[in-house]
Amino acid sequence: MRAILYRWKIPLQLIVIAVLVSFVSVVIWRLFIVKNKMIAEEYQLLASISSDEIIGYQKNKPDSWKDYIAVITACKNTSAAIREDLRKKLLSQLDNHTQFKNLKWNGADKNTQKTASQIRTLLNQYTIYDPGKYGFPLKQTCYYVDTYGADREGGARFHQGTDLFEKKGTPIYNVCPGTIEKLGWNRLGGERVGVRGDDGNYYYYAHLDKINPELIIGKKIKTGELIGQMGNTGDAISTSDHLHFGIELPNGQWLNPYPFLKVWDSHAKGGGG
Ligand SMILES: [Zn+2]
């Protein structure tokens, strides 16, 4: 009996270790997926805020724009009967320098207050709208509209970014600190650069005429460093020169970059404190 036990001792230990290791890996993997899904939902919520309102409040209330944005965004979802009245009461409290946590929410349903607190927390947690944190990819004014979700290749896929139009050769700059992850040719993007931001998102610059030859995969890159020159390579070959700019979240979902570009553009033009 003892001999049999001895013979099986090592294999049994190995099995127990293998089971434990796989269990722990599954738990870690699940947590990772859940976390990335949550991050994606939070960015979607941020992208749904009106960029014009952010720009306006950053200009007029540079110290408390996050409070104003949280309040007015949350009020939009409250019942029509009390919306205007509630909004007025809350804004007048903010105008009188009441701190966000001390606001009186009389008449508001719990959800409105909860949404406002959530938005307020996210605006602190993610710095993507903060003046001075992210740069606009061009140094000059250019034409761009919100075409996220537009049909491409007859419904085979949809537009997952923003196109910024200027003339061929216009310099394109990096929008946030990160590491060069992808460089060179792909079928749709043509000459493209992919930067893994320190914030975890993937920033995609496509259809470049030329990539900055000094870029190397794995190398750190700062905000405002040269990415390359605008062109129409890849599937943009039959269109005007433009930069296709995309933001891919850690869960693989492409975020609509338009509202963020609008706000960064306003900062580049001297808005937002
Ligand atoms: Zn595009």
CATH topology of the largest domain: Glucose Permease (Domain IIA)
Helix content: 40-55%
* The first-level CATH class name of the largest domain: Mainly Beta
What is the CATH superfamily label of the largest domain?
Answer: Glucose Permease (Domain IIA)
Structural commentary:
With 273 residues, this protein is α+β, with helices and mostly antiparallel strands. It has three domains: 1-47; 53-125, no CATH class; 151-268, Glucose Permease (Domain IIA). Helices cover 40% and strands 20% of the residues. The protein has helices at residues 2-47, 51-60, 65-75, 80-95, 110-125, 258-268, and strands spanning 151-152, 157-158, 162-165, 171-173, 178-186, 190-197, 202-211, 220-221, 226-230, 242-248, 254-255. A hairpin with a 4-residue loop joins strand 6 and strand 7. Helix 2 packs antiparallel against helix 3 (65-75), helix 3 (65-75) packs antiparallel against helix 4 and helix 3 packs antiparallel against helix 5. Bound molecules: zinc ion. Residues 159, 161, 163, 244 line the site of zinc ion (ZN).
